[in-house]
Amino acid sequence: MSETDFAAFEAKTSGDRSVMHVLYGLHTLAWPSLGSLAVIALIVNYIKRGDEADPLYLRHHSYLIATFWWTVLWLLLASPLYLLFILPGLVAQGIVGLWYLYRCLRGWLRFADNRLP
């Protein structure tokens, strides 16, 4: 039976915490940037998640990644509503946007309290 060397795990620094706050900020500002900030944050989430050992940070990276991909899926599913009229498509996109904003803010607040998403 092998023993885990906990000294090998790095302690979290304020820089790690700041990076997570910046990632939440980029995801939250995705709509005004037409999604470009979310894509940048998504790439960083994937990179940081691969190197992560802390369960809190790991779960928050996974939470943001899942939020992004679920939002893309719902936007794709709602896009045919634009073929009917503009209004149903705008309503669907607005609902998805509010859901995305809710998920980002909820996760960000839970991270600030050192809680899992």
What does this structure look like?
The chain is mainly alpha-helical and 117 residues long. The chain has one domain (13-112). 73% of the residues lie in helices and 0% in strands.
What is the secondary structure topology, with strand pairs?
Blueprint: H1 14-28, H2 36-50, H3 55-78, H4 81-84, H5 86-112
Annotation keywords:
single chain; 117 residues; mainly alpha; 5 helices; elongated
Beta-strand content: under 5%
Total beta strand runs: 0
Q: Which series of helices and strands comes N to C?
A: HHHHH
Output mean pLDDT. Answer: 89
Cα separation of the termini: 33 Å
Unreliable residue runs: 4-8
Give the count of helical stretches: 5
Q: Write down the domain tally.
A: 1
Spatial shape: elongated
**Helix percentage range:** over 70%
Largest sheet, in brief, is:
none
Helical/strand content category: mainly alpha
Radius of gyration: 17 Å
Can you summarize this structure?
The protein has helices spanning 14-28, 36-50, 55-78, 81-84, 86-112. With 117 residues, the chain is mainly alpha-helical.
